[in-house]
Amino acid sequence: MNAKAGCERRGGFGAVWIILLAMVLAASAADAARTPTRERGVLWQLERGNGPASYLYGTIHSEDARVLDLPEAVTRPLEGSAVFLIEADPGAGMELAALRRMMFVDGRRLSDLLTPGSLKQVEAAMQDKGFPPGTTAYLKPWAVSIMLSVPRPGTGILLDLHLRSLAREQGIPVEGVETIAEQLDVLDGLSEADQLVMLEETLAHLGERDAMYEQLVEAWLDRDLGEIRRLGRQELAGRPQTAERVFDSLIVRRNHRMAERIVPFLEKGNAFVAVGALHLPGDDGILSLLEKRGFRVRALY
User: Which of 83, 230, 232, 246 has the greatest CB tally within 10 Å of its CB?
Assistant: First the structure.
């Protein structure tokens, strides 16, 4: 199919970008001016009882050089850890599997869901991203929305993958908190109506993309989780019901699943966990969920 051919010419869509940066669309409505102190910081120490401490690092799924320039406050506990947990560890064949989930398999096309004007806008925006004509024909609305929402991949070495490389260089075992298939299930499980709203809002904000992404990077560098959430909320601000459903699917439910899976490693201690920063703050954030399980959390950086 045309979409697959385009993928091969580009060396892959960069499915890690597509899957992980999707979470930016689902940030909550917290106001940065009222951000609790606990929501400032990206590296947190976790302890329970007298066991060894573990560490939870809120990442941004970016290959920006400023992001990859890690301070010793982060690299030191990583290098001394017994296990490294990444949000999802991409394996062989992941991009092809992701591409299949992104495409209609029932004979429909994107043109069946969009007006001629919206379809023309999508095709033009995709070509501006470097995708050849016809790429969008069989893609689902959520997939197009995400592909238009993220910067063009460069090296493909996101912060998460950089951390994984550092861990492997030290001989530290690597585990995935979730699987790529599970993350795809979440995205593909969004209703078609919500997918279309996401795509409409993405198209409406295309001209603001670069500035919005720069703000997101700066908020992460400032270690301001509340601001990251606020920035993510901007895109769906005019669609509060859709925003709530998307947030619940992409963030809240996954927070509970990830916290459940992280706990056994934390109980052993000396684990280093890296998940998207959007999963840390809030009453349903991983930090609060771990506190409810008796862990003491303290911001280190």
Answer: 246
